[in-house]
Specification:
The chain is α/β, with parallel strands linked by helices. The chain has helices spanning about 5-10, 60-70, 110-125, 140-150, 195-205, 235-245, 290-305, 320-330, 350-360, 385-395, 400-415, 450-465; strands at about 20, 50-55, 85-90, 95-100, 130-135, 160-165, 185, 225-230, 260-265, 270-275, 305-315, 335-340, 370, 425-435, 440-445, 470-480.
Length: about 475
């Protein structure tokens, strides 16, 4: 609570210490209505990029987790878990760099694996240095030799890592990898961390001080946008459309995306950080393996985002899973934009049915921005950026305390709170405790019914907007002081 708010309450004879917080599902505000709000992350200088490549199931993602010092990449003991180019921030000996994990590269792949291999090739072409990962327990295969031939022709520095060297018995076998023509092989164990320090020292020597390619990003850093929705709704197709390149692997098979794919995208003259996520399935708790960890990464991406784009298949009825995804975003307190994809498949009958579904299933998020698009044809994709800006502006909005209390007095005079227990509660004072999302604290003499709080929220939106952002109302009830004898 600001000093001005405390002074205004003192003039009214109100002591914030006399009020107790009611548990009404509002987080982030303390008992006296204050809330800590961290500052925005500032964008540092651009970091050089290291691409990690190799054939499937050699332990690239396990090694990536070891090099970045945290369990970010989804790992499972089956080939083909990683499919997209996934970037992670890494730090070693005071130097920052970006580490890009890729799917398994195979020269003669077809179908989905061909798209995965194309992503790995793109990573090799755009990185400042390349790390080829070879399974030391198997040795150099014909696929490893094919990758090495490609890398020898590139103008990027190339390092060779021999993984799964868990003890001294395999260290001598790594000498045979010199024949790949990529220089010294570094024996490492992604599982145990053996040799990872020496490899990181070599990585820093190979990487330039600044990357070859940089984005023009504002000083405060790009706004973070998460693309979420149920599987096969078109999240990766939308990312590819707005980025203008094949940034994510797209396939008819549901669940193609596993790791969150982070991309800087220039949209409507502004750079945004888009994160493509794995589709959230109906029963996350019963999921296992990579599906379970992919769902955890998606939840983390929502928490890390500022605004979330929830994609809904316009050609199909709104499903229960769509509503669950929206609930996750709302509970996380993030700005929200609803994007109805595959609009090119919607006919007149479907439009009428969708109108009924919106009134029935999405009535609680009437405040969310809605955009109808087709990621396949590019229809109305340019409308997403204005919707994102509107939602973020509402998410950051702050209402002056004087204006808020003046408005609230008029509303309560016209429609007072309902009587509870024979007494009518009075709202003594109101203040906006924080933004992101806008959170308001009402100091009262009694508890306010949930229906009346919803009424106040509706009137609040009618007066001040808040389009695209959730709004939270917290009630602080004055404690009864013991009578003096």
């Amino acid at each position: 609570m600001s000093t001005d708010d405390r002074a205004a309450m003192a003039e009214l004879g109100i002591d914030p210490a006399d009020f107790v917080a009611m548990d009404d599902g509002v987080d982030g505000a303390s008992a006296d209505g204050t809330a800590g709000l961290g500052g925005d992350e500032t964008a540092g200088p651009p970091a050089p990029v290291l691409a990690v490549v190799g054939r499937p199931n050699v332990g690239k993602s396990t090694l990536v987790n070891r090099l970045i010092g945290r369990r970010e990449a989804v790992v499972q003991d089956v080939p083909g878990v990683t499919r997209d180019r996934v970037a992670y921030d890494a730090l070693w000996n005071g130097r920052q760099f970006t580490l890009v994990d890729t799917g398994g590269w195979e020269p003669d792949a077809t179908g989905l694996q061909a798209a995965v291999a194309a992503q790995a090739e793109m990573a090799m072409q755009t990185a400042d240095a390349v790390l080829l990962v070879v399974d030391a327990s198997v040795g150099a295969t014909t696929t490893d030799e094919a990758v090495a031939r490609v890398l020898r022709r590139s103008d990027r520095p190339v390092l060779l890592a021999a993984t799964k060297v868990d003890d001294d018995r395999l260290t001598a076998d790594t000498a045979a990898l010199w024949r790949l023509g990529l220089g010294q092989p570094y024996p490492v164990s992604g599982l145990h961390g053996r040799g990872s320090g020496d490899l990181l020292d070599a990585v820093l020597e190979a990487l330039p001080e600044t990357p070859r390619e940089t984005f023009g990003v504002a000083a405060g850093g790009p706004r973070r946008v998460a693309l979420v929705g149920k599987p096969n709704v078109g999240k990766s197709s939308l990312l590819n459309r707005v980025s203008g390149e094949l940034r994510s692997v797209v396939h008819d098979v549901a669940g193609t995306t596993v790791d969150p794919v982070d991309s800087l995208v220039e949209l409507d003259g502004e750079v945004w950080r888009f994160v493509d996520t794995a589709g959230l399935r109906k029963r996350v708790k019963t999921a296992s393996g990579m599906e379970y960890y992919a769902s955890l990464r998606t939840q983390a991406a929502i928490e890390a985002a500022e605004v979330v784009v929830v994609l809904i298949d316009a050609a199909e009825p709104i499903a229960e899973q769509d509503q669950r995804v929206i609930t996750m975003v709302e509970e996380a307190g993030r700005a929200l934009v609803l994007v109805f994809n595959k609009w090119d498949l919607v006919d007149e009958d479907r439009r009428l049915a969708m109108k009924r579904e919106l009134e029935r299933d999405l009535v609680r998020v009437r405040w969310a921005e809605r955009v109808n698009i087709s990621a396949l044809t590019g229809r109305s994709v340019q409308k997403i950026a204005p919707a994102l800006r509107t939602a973020l502006e509402s998410w950051d909005k702050r209402i002056p305390t004087g204006r808020l209390n003046g408005w609230l007095s008029e509303v309560i005079a016209a429609t007072p709170p309902p009587v509870r227990g024979g007494k009518q509660p009075k709202v003594l004072f109101a203040t906006q405790a924080q933004t992101r999302p806008p959170t308001f604290v009402l100091f009262t003499t009694g508890f306010l019914e949930a229906g009346y709080r919803r009424f106040l929220e509706r009137r609040l939106r009618e007066e001040f907007g808040f389009t695209g952002s959730p709004v939270r109302l917290s009630v602080r009830v004055r404690e009864k002081r013991p009578r003096k004898r």
